[in-house]
Amino acid sequence: MLERWDEICHQWVAEHLESGSDDEVFASGYLQGHFAVVLAGLEQQAEVSLTDLESRMEAHLEQARSELAPGDMALVQGAWAELAQRLS
User: Rounded to two decimals, what is the model's pTM?
Assistant: First the structure.
Protein backbone atom coordinates (compact mmCIF):
# COMPACT_ATOMS: atom_id res chain seq x y z
CA MET A 1 0.00 0.00 0.00
CA LEU A 2 2.79 2.44 0.90
CA GLU A 3 4.51 1.88 -2.45
CA ARG A 4 1.26 2.54 -4.29
CA TRP A 5 0.72 5.78 -2.39
CA ASP A 6 4.31 6.81 -3.07
CA GLU A 7 3.85 6.16 -6.81
CA ILE A 8 0.61 8.16 -6.86
CA CYS A 9 2.34 11.06 -5.11
CA HIS A 10 5.30 11.02 -7.49
CA GLN A 11 3.00 11.01 -10.51
CA TRP A 12 0.90 13.82 -9.04
CA VAL A 13 4.02 15.95 -8.38
CA ALA A 14 5.34 15.22 -11.90
CA GLU A 15 2.05 16.46 -13.36
CA HIS A 16 2.37 19.70 -11.41
CA LEU A 17 5.99 20.15 -12.45
CA GLU A 18 5.03 19.68 -16.07
CA SER A 19 2.02 21.93 -16.30
CA GLY A 20 1.32 23.55 -12.93
CA SER A 21 1.55 27.17 -11.93
CA ASP A 22 4.43 28.38 -9.76
CA ASP A 23 2.17 28.07 -6.72
CA GLU A 24 1.20 24.50 -7.61
CA VAL A 25 4.84 23.54 -8.15
CA PHE A 26 5.79 25.03 -4.78
CA ALA A 27 2.91 23.40 -2.89
CA SER A 28 3.35 19.97 -4.46
CA GLY A 29 7.10 19.96 -3.85
CA TYR A 30 6.70 21.09 -0.26
CA LEU A 31 3.98 18.53 0.32
CA GLN A 32 6.05 15.74 -1.26
CA GLY A 33 8.74 16.20 1.38
CA HIS A 34 6.27 15.90 4.23
CA PHE A 35 4.55 12.98 2.51
CA ALA A 36 7.86 11.09 2.30
CA VAL A 37 8.53 11.63 6.02
CA VAL A 38 5.04 10.40 6.94
CA LEU A 39 5.33 7.34 4.69
CA ALA A 40 8.68 6.47 6.28
CA GLY A 41 7.05 6.64 9.70
CA LEU A 42 4.20 4.39 8.58
CA GLU A 43 6.66 1.69 7.46
CA GLN A 44 6.99 0.74 11.14
CA GLN A 45 3.34 -0.34 11.33
CA ALA A 46 2.19 -3.83 10.41
CA GLU A 47 -1.10 -2.62 8.96
CA VAL A 48 -1.68 0.80 7.45
CA SER A 49 -4.91 2.43 6.34
CA LEU A 50 -5.67 5.56 4.38
CA THR A 51 -7.10 6.99 7.60
CA ASP A 52 -3.70 6.50 9.28
CA LEU A 53 -1.98 8.31 6.43
CA GLU A 54 -4.47 11.17 6.43
CA SER A 55 -4.33 11.75 10.18
CA ARG A 56 -0.53 11.69 10.23
CA MET A 57 -0.30 14.06 7.28
CA GLU A 58 -2.71 16.49 8.88
CA ALA A 59 -0.75 16.39 12.15
CA HIS A 60 2.54 16.81 10.29
CA LEU A 61 1.24 19.78 8.33
CA GLU A 62 -0.16 21.35 11.48
CA GLN A 63 3.30 21.16 13.07
CA ALA A 64 4.77 22.81 9.96
CA ARG A 65 2.27 25.68 10.05
CA SER A 66 4.85 28.04 11.58
CA GLU A 67 7.24 27.43 8.66
CA LEU A 68 4.98 29.05 6.08
CA ALA A 69 3.14 32.29 5.53
CA PRO A 70 -0.64 31.86 5.80
CA GLY A 71 -1.11 32.12 2.03
CA ASP A 72 1.52 29.47 1.38
CA MET A 73 -0.01 27.21 4.01
CA ALA A 74 -3.37 27.56 2.28
CA LEU A 75 -1.72 26.44 -0.99
CA VAL A 76 -0.20 23.41 0.74
CA GLN A 77 -3.50 22.52 2.44
CA GLY A 78 -5.26 22.73 -0.93
CA ALA A 79 -2.57 20.56 -2.49
CA TRP A 80 -2.99 18.01 0.30
CA ALA A 81 -6.76 17.91 -0.27
CA GLU A 82 -6.14 17.28 -3.98
CA LEU A 83 -3.57 14.54 -3.34
CA ALA A 84 -5.68 12.91 -0.62
CA GLN A 85 -8.59 12.67 -3.05
CA ARG A 86 -6.37 10.97 -5.60
CA LEU A 87 -5.11 8.49 -2.98
CA SER A 88 -8.62 7.30 -2.12
Answer: 0.90
